[in-house]
Amino acid sequence: MGLGREEADLLRPDTLGDAVERYLPEVVINAAADTAVDRAEAEFAAAWRANAVAPAALAEACRDRGIRLIHFSTDYVFDGSQRTPYLESDPTAPVNAYGRAKLGGEESVLNADPKHLVFRLSWVYSARGRNFALTMLRLAREGKPIRVVDDQIGSPTNARCIADSIAEIVGHFLALPEEPGGLFHLSAAGQTSWAGFAQSLLNEVFGGVAPTVEPIPTSAYPTPAARPAYSVLSNEKVQRRFGIRLPAWEDQLALWAEDLNGPSLPGHC
Ligand SMILES: NC(=O)c1ccc[n+]([C@@H]2O[C@H](COP(=O)([O-])OP(=O)(O)OC[C@H]3O[C@@H](n4cnc5c(N)ncnc54)[C@H](OP(=O)(O)O)[C@@H]3O)[C@@H](O)[C@H]2O)c1
């Protein structure tokens, strides 16, 4: 059962308890958020409401009904000064308003109930919807020049692989309802820059006739919100705890290219 804004509006946190009460599911997965990173700089109150106040309300509503909440956070809780993959225990220091609001959300979820789970994701893309990978593809098909920053490093993660991992993790907790939850990093293995990712995805789709991506520095592409220069997440903890395998970003990208031609089978990642 998936609820949209009509039944579960993050900007109306006081109504979220009623939405939980209406269905009383075994698990609630909150995949909704205000993800407009640049807009959050000018509209922090709304970003805070959707990304911190609403998750807090949802976490309390779930706790009061004995329901486990799965919530998503972001690599943007880090300042990017590290040069080795971030652990869950590393200090947070968001460099933008979106990251501050998301950090507020993850803290309130985990404070509400130690059985809740927060998964920090990074650089999420998919074969559907709107995302960086599909934008690059569109630009290439339109014959537009493709200039992409090459001094921000992260781990592009296919939404399908996140969904497959979460399905396994939910199964784990349904079998072991008393187990505590916690904070986990859930991203692809390995790292690249946005420019490296763009070039790889174009190569994957267009092969030898792929257009060339022009790498540019972040200073040549100014945005209202700063981004961390390095936000690679170590996914050791989630793999160890749940016995799941998170493929390298290149393998996840190959799966994305397959999915462009139609949905693949669940559990494929
Ligand atoms: N994308 C990334 O690279 C990335 C990286 C790290 C973490 N994350 C986290 O991963 C999660 C999913 O992100 P995403 O990339 O899938 O985001 P997305 O594509 O922007 O989707 C966000 C979803 O939230 C819904 N939403 C927005 N405002 C809402 C409101 N007021 N009430 C109810 N629903 C609302 C949107 O609904 P509509 O369809 O109606 O607009 C949309 O379905 C978020 O927690 C995000 O912070 C994402």
Structural class: alpha/beta
For the biggest sheet, the summary is: 4 strands, parallel
Global mean pLDDT: 96
CATH topology: Rossmann fold
List the helices and strands and how they pair.
Layout: H1 16-23, E1 27-30, H2 39-42, H3 44-64, E2 68-74, H4 97-112, E3 117-121, E4 124-125, H5 132-141, E5 147-149, E6 153-154, E7 157-158, H6 159-175, E8 182-185, E9 192-193, H7 194-206, E10 214-216, H8 236-242, H9 249-259
Parallel strand pairs: 1-2, 2-3, 3-8, 4-7, 5-10
Antiparallel strand pairs: 6-9
Helix pairs in contact: 1-3, 3-4, 5-7, 7-9
Residues 4-5, 8-11, 31-35, 50, 72, 74-75, 102, 121-124 line the site of NADP nicotinamide-adenine-dinucleotide phosphate (NAP).
What does this structure look like?
One of its GO terms (cellular component) is cytosol. The protein has 269 residues and is of the alpha/beta class. The chain has one domain (13-259): Rossmann fold, CATH 3.40.50. Helices cover 40% and strands 13% of the residues. It has nine helices and ten strands. The strands form four sheets. A four-stranded parallel β-sheet has the order 1-2-3-8. It has a two-stranded parallel ribbon with strand order 4-7. Helix 4 (97-112) links the parallel strand 2 and strand 3 (117-121). The mean pLDDT is 96. The site of NADP nicotinamide-adenine-dinucleotide phosphate has 20 residues, from strand 2.
